[in-house]
């Protein structure tokens, strides 16, 4: 088993079954984050925005509970750099389990393990990467986990590569010669 350091984007050939990908970013959840997603999704459970009511809930320990939709979305987003930066399609999410409360002020991290690989039968430019992803808080408690499969482009496909536009002229050389920004 190999643990890979943070890298921007992988292609199908870069994965190995059993490898663990520790995603490089962590994110502290703010009250604003939680309130916005709660309002946006019309989630009226007051444990997400009413501190007085949350104090009565034995599960929340008197703290504001992070909306589970935000928890799932944040962990998914944290995993993109390693697991689906070069995906052409999400195929499946299963077995989502919210295993520990996440509170406003907690920091969330994510990691994934590659559980299966196969070339696509219908899309020669891609393969299927299956994984288990989990989110953990700053104490190492697993707060959410799921199984996921994505269709990821092969390196030979050219998908997701060479998209940066051709710069007209040579502004970097002009700056170096003519002065420019200090």
UniProtKB/TrEMBL annotation:
<dbReference type="GO" id="GO:0016829">
    <property type="term" value="F:lyase activity"/>
</dbReference>
<dbReference type="InterPro" id="IPR029069">
    <property type="entry name" value="HotDog_dom_sf"/>
</dbReference>
<dbReference type="InterPro" id="IPR048274">
    <property type="entry name" value="MC_hydratase"/>
</dbReference>
<protein>
    <submittedName>
        <fullName>Acyl dehydratase</fullName>
    </submittedName>
</protein>
<dbReference type="InterPro" id="IPR052342">
    <property type="entry name" value="MCH/BMMD"/>
</dbReference>
<dbReference type="Pfam" id="PF19315">
    <property type="entry name" value="MC_hydratase"/>
</dbReference>
């Amino acid at each position: 088993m190999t643990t890979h350091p943070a890298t921007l984007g992988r292609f199908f050939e870069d994965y190995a079954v059993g490898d663990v990908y520790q995603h490089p970013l962590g994110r502290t959840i703010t009250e604003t984050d939680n309130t916005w997603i709660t309002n946006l999704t019309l989630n009226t459970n007051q444990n997400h925005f009413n501190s007085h009511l949350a104090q009565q809930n034995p599960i929340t320990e008197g703290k504001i509970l992070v909306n589970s939709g935000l928890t799932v979305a944040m962990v998914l987003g944290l995993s993109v750099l390693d697991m689906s930066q070069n995906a052409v399609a999400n195929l499946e999410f299963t077995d989502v389990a919210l295993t520990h409360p996440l509170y406003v002020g907690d920091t969330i991290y994510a990691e994934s393990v590659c559980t299966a690989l196969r070339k696509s039968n219908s899309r020669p430019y891609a393969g299927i990467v299956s994984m288990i992803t989990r989110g953990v808080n700053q104490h190492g408690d697993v707060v959410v986990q799921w199984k996921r499969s994505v269709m990821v482009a092969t390196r030979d496909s050219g998908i997701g590569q060479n998209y940066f536009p051709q710069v007209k002229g040579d502004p970097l050389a002009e700056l170096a010669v003519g002065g420019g920004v200090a």
